[in-house]
Amino acid sequence: MADEPATLLTTAQALGNDLVGLGSRMSPLYLLTFTVFSLVLFTVRPRDSDRSFLQWLLPASIYRNTSLIVDAQLFLTAGLLGLAGVFSPVLISAICFEALSWVLSSALGPAAVVQEPVAASTVAMLAATFVFTIGTDFSLYWAHRLAHDIPVLWPFHEVHHSAEVLAPITVSRQHPFDLFISTSIVGIFVGLFGAVCMRLFGEAMPLLTVTKVQVFTIAFYALHANFRHSHIWISYGPTAEHVFMSPAQHQLHHSILPKHHHANFGSMLSVWDWLFGTLCLAGDERPLDFGLATADGRRIAPLHPTWKDAMLVPFMRVGQTLAGEDLYPAPAAKTEDA
User: Fold this and answer.
1) Whole-prediction pTM value?
2) 103 phi and psi, to 5 degrees?
3) Contacts of residue 64, Cβ cutoff 8 Å, sequence gap at least 6
4) Nearest C-alpha neighbor of 82 from the set 168, 170, 179
5) Phi-psi category of residue 325: left, alpha or beta, with phi > 0 → left and psi -120 to 50 → alpha
6) Which helix (H) or strand (E) holds 319?
7) Domain that holds residue 168
8) Are 264 and 242 in contact (CB under 8 A)?
9) Cα–Cα dist 130/136, whole Å
10) Which of 2, 91, 110, 338 to pair with 47, CA 20 to 30 A apart?
């Protein structure tokens, strides 16, 4: 009984870290940088109205939309389930680590025993973190694309695309099963990366982190990520958008227009979309509507107006898929220009 307050405090701290720590885009630090950079854009860009900064940053048409209530509820749901370890990729990472280690040992012989592993330099750690970040981004591209391409996975990812408005918290509008699949695919890469590091260095290469969050992830969250789900249009131009995924490109990904269907699956990088034929450049045209639509761009009535619908309707939609119904809007003929 005496340990109960300490246990509750530890649990509350863990939940708080999951919800607003540096590993979450809802961290006060990232919301602060989002606000500061938004103020810079508000100051330097031409204005088409006399709205104040706060009216421009937090328009009532977005922040009074009931779609955001479901976003917030799913944000809390993910935090609670994450606390229970539901999304932990530890098991699949361990399986992939052992499998690749066995393959490498069978093909190349036992790894040399390192009696005293040399402490990694900052440069080596930075390089390992960079490679790890690129590999994680590649795995996120395929996790995202498979959620669109595999019919029985789409109904779960559909919850995210049912958002009628975009705000930073919309990133958390994910069905738990969709999030589980995504973290599992990333977990496969983590296991393989660990096996290669163990083979090369005799130990797991340490990464540059702050409170267990990689420095490149912190930079991405602080400088860029929250603009992806927002009404603020930021394009990098056609050249840079072949490599880096601009916020505008991700906003196109949420558009109901047919020419934006099945495009821009990348997270940090758009080079994967360029390589695999799913790149759509932002151009000058901004999407007018977000949400779910038919293949010809006709809006679908909201499927997930409540938390209960967001949690249960996907299973019903999977049943429709297994019965032969095609629920995913067919990919439009793609060009790189929007």
Assistant:
1) 0.90
2) -60, -45
3) none
4) 179
5) beta
6) helix 307-322
7) 58-322
8) no
9) 10
10) 338
Q: What is the pLDDT of residue 123?
A: 85
Specify the 3-state DSSP secondary structure of 293: strand
The verdict on residue 43 lying in a domain is no
In which element (H, E) is residue 226 found? helix 226-228
Inter-axis angle of helices 67-83 and 176-201, nearest 10: 50
Q: Which token pair is 249?
A: 């490109």
What angle, rounded to 10 degrees, do the helices at 176-201 and 90-108 form? 30
Angle between helix axes 122-149 and 154-161 (nearest 10 degrees) is 100
Across the chain, which has 338 residues, the per-10-residue mean pLDDT values are 62 80 95 98 90 96 96 95 80 86 84 57 85 93 96 96 96 96 92 82 77 93 97 96 97 92 95 97 83 90 95 96 84 56
- Read off the amino acid at residue 223: L
126 within some domain? yes
| Inside any domain, residue 28 | no
Distance CA 23, CA 37 (A): 20
* Total number of domains constituting the chain: 1
